[in-house]
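Take just one protein record:
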Amino acid sequence: MTLIGTLGKYVDKGTCVVGVMQHTGEKFPALPKGVPAPQPVTTNYVVYIGTKQWKNIAATVSDPEDALIVEGFPQIDAKTGAIAVFVSNVTSKKLQAAKRQG
């Protein structure tokens, strides 16, 4: 699963950082003909980012003009009703642009 957006509240748990990303149901991608449009509901994603990966993107989280690109394994969190995403790779749009230029 890939999420692109900003990280809301987050907490450093020592071995990982746990944060929340949210989709408000305002924008949907273009879907193939015949596929019904999703209902406009708010979806919460609780992302678990390893400390080593967090160090690479920590400075970008506070930049309102940047967006995180999070890739990971999704699983329904029965306690919160959110979708937990166990992150395997994380970067940001600005970090990717800088890497392409360098």
In short: The chain has a mean pLDDT of 91. The helical segments are 51-57, 93-101.
